[in-house]
Amino acid sequence: MTAASISRAAFVVFAAALLAVPTVIPMLASPFWIDIAAEILIWSLLAASVNLLLGYVGLLSFGQALYFGVGMYGAALSVIHWGAGFWGGLALGILGAMLMAAIAGSVAVRLTWHYFAIITVVFSLILYFAALSAKPLTGGDDGISFGAPDVLAFGDVRLSLANQAVQYYTILLVVAACYALFGLVVRSPLGVRFMAVRENDRRAALVGINVYLTRYLAFVLAGGLAGASGALFAFFGRYASATYMFYHVSGEAVVWAIVGGTGALLGPLFGAGLLIILREVISTVWEHYLFVVGALTILVVMFAPRGLAGAWRDLLAAMTRRPPAVAAAPSPPGTDAAPSTPSANATQGD
Which of 58, 73, 303, 304 has CA atoms 20 to 30 A from the CA of 260? Predict the structure, then answer.
């Protein structure tokens, strides 16, 4: 089998496992793990927004929590004050996050390296303190809560997020759509421009690529992914709080993206899944579980610098590598390496 066929088979198995979560997990463990699986899907979108900037454009952002928070509040406030349903709240959360990213990105993408990272943190802190100050609207640290809207209401048929299985499959559908869109973008001509700017922005400019516009579009799209994550998290917990806009949330997303593998489409999903499951398992027996999470992160960075996705590609390459052809044994010294032929003496003896 080729590496491509193995990857396709593994993806099919992985997709089937995600679809089977609400059915299989109650047979094997507590239904609590269905919510953990949904949470992994949500947080992986935030890590995917980091991956889009870092893995495909070469910009390290520590401010994605800002757009996560805008998406979260956009969904919550639209449900509370405007009576928006699930899909309307989700759309407004994503649009609000993209609008905020468009404003911040107009300044941020003019910078690179650590200057870019610093200004993303600054924007995140500004909006974090603004959200704390606007407590009548945002609830500040206490946050605001709301009831779960229906996902679908048609006649007597009503699908509500209050049903655990409906909530999981709704989150899975939205996350899968976001990853599919992400995949289309990075495989499009725009994605090629992203990677050209990542590799060498000066050469990209010389061949006619608008570096500023390319980075700006990536920044806005990354804001949309983070906003979708925030909106889903608001519906998941029926809650929004300014706490989630603090930059430590962005730091976690960066770690998930790096552990999973930057520059790989599903890398953030693997990274978030591994570290969140590890957190949930270890935290039940040891309150200092973050030491183990930190140690695992360091080991992955040391021994798998391209993350879990890179380690998987290396494993596939080793599994599908053809063995080298067996070379002919060297002739002993002093002998003729040419093929043997009947000797002249033998013929003369006849």
Answer: 73
